[in-house]
Amino acid sequence: MTGETTSTADPVASAPGLVGTIAGIREAVAAHRRDGRTVALVPTMGALHDGHLALVRRAREIADVVVVSIFVNPLQFGAGEDLDRYPRTLESDLAALGRDGVELVFAPTAAEMYPAGEVETRVTAGHVGTLYEGASRPGHFDGVLTVVSKLFHIVQPDHALFGQKDAQQVFLVQRMVRDLDLPVRVEVVPTVREPDGLAMSSRNRYLDAEQRRIALALSESLAAAESAAADGLDEVLAEAAGAFGDHDGIELDYLVVVDPETFLPVVEGAAGPARVLVAARVGATRLIDNGLITLG
Ligand code: PAF
User: If you average pLDDT over residues 165-180, what whole number do you get?
Assistant: First the structure.
């Protein structure tokens, strides 16, 4: 891979242009813009699954050119997290993106994105960035927002697409776009699930067969929360937590019901739309999920 736009040798698909440098992707996007085309960016860390491909397909509907970034961002991983073992599957990612007609893949190295190593200048995610995922993974959302804002500045897309599965990330990205007046429209695409309900995630591939079965507690807890929603917050929390009682080998990290507008926890007696957030550890693998309910 070079700074130039190159093609991979996939005989079936029309391979996307693979670009490794910031200058190269700017040039490639500028060429499309000169021809009057609109651009959508789908930021990813690779290890693509159908959830990512749903973002790509939606991007294709709303823009002329789709750019997918593939970058395992070291800034959003804490000490002891899975940065080194995070799955890197560039060849199969490119083949999948080629089949979906993606024009450009931006896959920089860490040295390209952070030539000075640790960056001093970062976007801070504020108080909400320290809650839930942020409490378990300190600094995670500062790392996410920093790389997302870099990608926005590099690609300058008209649209950027994110998956609802990472609900807190979506909330924080949307707020960053508002707070910093970034000229991009963020579109959120519903979570894609396996037939049995498990939310698709690149980390699912860490699970062995037994862990894969146990991991269903997350989606089961959301279903339980939805069934109890008319009875109020306390019932929702009790029923949703109950889904974990039946499983050994899974450790609940947090289960919380938040106001979708503020992302702060709702209190007993609240009524109307609310989002249930759940995170659990299955062996060494941390999984998250969420769902919208209407509290009665
Ligand atoms: O959701 C992800 O895969 C990552 O957090 C993102 C948005 C690509 C930033 O690294």
Answer: 98
